[in-house]
Amino acid sequence: MARARELGHAVLGTTSPNPPVGAVVLDAAGAVVGEGATSPPGGPHAEVHALAQAGERARGGTAVVTLEPCAHTGRTGPCADALIAAGVARVVVAVPEPTRSATGGAARLRAAGVDVELGVEQAEAAQGALAGWLTGVSAGRPQVVWKVATTLDGRVAAADGTSRWITGPDARAAVHRLRAGCDAVLVGSGTALADDPQLTVRDAAGHTAERQPLRVVLDRRGRVPAGARVHDGAARTLVSRAPTPAALLAELFGLDVRRVLLEGGPTLAAAFLAAGLVDEAVVHVAPTLLGAGAHMVGDLGIPTITDALHLAVTDVTRLGGDVQIRLRPTRHTGGPGTTGGGS
Which one of 35, 74, 98, 228 counts the least CB within 10 Å of its CB? Predict the structure, then answer.
């Protein structure tokens, strides 16, 4: 199952609005004979790829899948039927299918005599590559991942406004990996004007990746000029005038966006945090002190320590001389539109 999760994570950002599923097929003796992950929309699902690789060796074997195989016909046929036709004897699933349209795969498999086990390492799979898609199912909006680079004293820019580069090359490379796994990258007009970011995915040599997420600029007053780098044609760009974070996410959800990387400045971050619309935070901390300059997050409207927004640390990683901290909110502020953590 760990390998199936890895396969799903490898296609994160390429499958929306479909879920990024990973699948592994074992033969009757328990040896891996096939692996697969979800193709972009219209292409084969993970199980079909894995079965094609396994061929006849799948007969009498086991399929391990991060999401319950579908039982409906959409752009592709039912994966449950493909597993039955391949002669698989057992199917192990992490996350049961949560949608009405695709549910019933486990029941169809069992009716055909296939042994099915649901819920194996479900939490790990649900909080991994499937988190964005599951947020879409449960909350009707994309998953929001807030990324911020900060000094040790919580500054994202110096007093004169300079912010390049707070963190080192390893952390910056990690940001490009984050972007590659998202459907959209979001900044506000303030960040677009101050930093003129390109918001593309680039490799270590600076080459632009073939697949690019949607660049989104929240610019209610039309301040970002046509000559800004977000309009350079290197990737698609959406300029939105949505009045609230919730309205912006609804707009993006309608465009099949299921995972958004929020790279905006302190004001935009505060708006999303106060509305309870941040599902995960990725904080890059540099061992640097400024003592003045812009804070990492703006006013959250929290008057006392008892009302603080709490986050749980899920991972800490060294990135060269910097530290990456991954967190998930455990308690949201009580502002309008607060709905909880989503995924």
Answer: 74
- pTM of the predicted model, to two decimals? 0.88
pLDDT at 163 (0 to 100): 77
Beta bridge partners of 202: 208
Question: What are the structural domains, with CATH classification, of the chain?
Answer: 2-126 (3.40.140.10), 131-331 (3.40.430.10)
Tokens of 20: 């990024």
Residues 202-258: tens digit of each pLDDT:
887 788 888 999 999 999 998 999 999 999 988 999 999 999 999 999 999 999 999
Bridge-based pairing state of the strands 280-286 and 214-218: unpaired
- Residue 243: how many other CB atoms lie within 10 Å: 10
Could you tell me the pLDDT band of residue 278, with boundaries at 50, 70 and 90? very high
- Torsion-angle region of residue 337: left (phi > 0), alpha (psi -120 to 50) or beta? left
- Give the residue numbers marked as catalytic: 47
Strand ranges for the chain from DSSP E: 22-26, 32-37, 62-67, 90-95, 115-117, 143-151, 184-188, 214-218, 237-240, 259-262, 280-286, 310-319, 322-331
CA distance 291 to 268: 22
Please state, in angstroms and rounded to a whole number, the distance separating the CA atoms of residues 221 and 212.
26
Residue type, 32: V
**In this structure, are residues 199 and 147 in contact, taking their beta carbons and an 8 Å threshold?**
no
Q: How many CB atoms lie within 10 A of CB 262?
A: 28
Give Cβ neighbours of residue 174 (< 8 Å, ≥ 6 apart).
284, 319, 324
Q: Which helix (H) or strand (E) holds 194?
A: helix 189-195
Q: Are strands 237-240 and 115-117 parallel, antiparallel or unpaired?
A: unpaired
Do the Cβ atoms of 200 and 229 come closer than 8 Å?
no
Residue 63 · residue 24 · CB < 8 Å: yes
Beta bridge partners of 163: none
SS3 149: strand
